Amino acid sequence: MKIIILGGSGFIGKNLVNKLKETEHVVYIYSRSTGLDLTNIEQTKEIFRKIKPDAIVNCAAHAGSLHYVTSYAATVVNDNMRMSLNIYQAVAECCPNARIINPLSNCSYPGDVNIHSEPDWWKGEVHSSVYSYGNSKRFIYVLACCYKIQYNIKTINFLVPNTFGPGDHINPNKCHAINGMMIRMINATKNNDKEFEIWGTGSPIREWGYVDDIVSFLIKGLTIEEDLIYPINIAQNKGYSIKESAGLIAKAIGFKGKLIFNIKYQDGAPIKILDDKKFRQLFPDYQFFDHKEGIKKTIEYYNRIL
Fold first, then answer.
1. What residue ranges do the domains of the chain occupy?
2. What is the pLDDT of residues 201-219, one digit of tens each?
3. Is the model's pLDDT at 138 over the cut of 80?
4. Across all residues in the chain, what is the average pLDDT?
5. Is the pLDDT of residue 261 over 90?
6. CB burial class (10 A; 0-12, 13-18, 19+) of residue 293?
7. What is the edge-to-edge ordering of all strands in the sheet holding 271-274?
């Protein structure tokens, strides 16, 4: 297959590209850093028309930490919606037989739902702390439905948990929460700090997905026969509190200081765990990467590059 990876220089995109290089697929990597501005429809159509891909994996996003997507809410929602519109329009005009695979963040679930079950996905407001980013991901579902009706565009949508692993941003304000905590704690250990500050109360519970697992399902999306426009969870149905994760990270790094909590930072939704009933119906035998081993491997990565 000819596969375009959008956001191929980002966290999930880079890991996906590395895995696909082990296959016989022909992979084309595009991102803002390589010169493709997805907010520019003509640039987008030019690439799609030239390559005529069989599949497009859309890892492109204007994203960041909870605090970032709140501070720059208008810019985040504008960029993400514009990119998604352009992708679907360009596919319809230039390569209508291509399938689009979208990893959608679980922050697009209603903010007052603890166990994230697919039937509840559209039943309430996105949490205010991620309103811009979560709603821009919901918008992709609307696009997929409408472009299916008019142009018969095939879409596979996965709802992904908070993702961590090697390859994420080195700026703790831009990367995913657990990776950001690792970066800051590694630096605190090097500086022999007596305390480590955790942003928020530490009480929110999150389900974490190691990046290799997320990549595995994006690749599975290349061969799934039916449309999965209404998204399906990539789910383990297991979560860890921020405080618990901080303890696991401290143990893996060898940080000996005290963990303290800065409650001036907002927590976000109290619990985000993905229900795995539908997931297990489709993938009954899938074994997820061990969480503690994932933390260990991610810390090894950051120790090499920081």
1. 2-163+208-233, 168-206+239-270+290-305
2. 999 899 999 999 999 999 9
3. yes
4. 94
5. yes
6. exposed
7. 115-116, 271-274, 205-206, 240-241
Q: What are the tens digits of pLDDT across the range 8-29?
A: 999 999 999 999 999 999 999 9
Q: What count of other Cβ atoms lies within 10 Å of the Cβ of residue 120?
A: 14
What pTM was computed for the model? 0.91
Of the candidates 99, 69, 83, the one whose C-alpha atom is nearest the C-alpha of residue 32 is: 83
Residue whose tokens read 């016989």:
24
Do the domains 168-206+239-270+290-305 and 2-163+208-233 match in fold? no
Tell me which amino acid residue 88 is. Answer: Y
Rounded-to-integer distance, Cα 212 and Cα 210, Å: 6
CATH numeric code, 168-206+239-270+290-305: 3.90.25.10
- Counted residue by residue, the chain has a size of 306
Return the CATH architecture of domain 2-163+208-233.
Answer: 3-Layer(aba) Sandwich (3.40)
Which residue spans within the chain are E strands per DSSP? 2-6, 26-30, 55-58, 99-105, 115-116, 154-160, 162-164, 195-199, 205-206, 208-210, 228-233, 240-241, 258-262, 271-274
Q: At what angle do helices 291-305 and 177-190 cross, to 10 degrees?
A: 50
Q: How far apart are CA 36 and CA 224, in angstroms?
A: 28
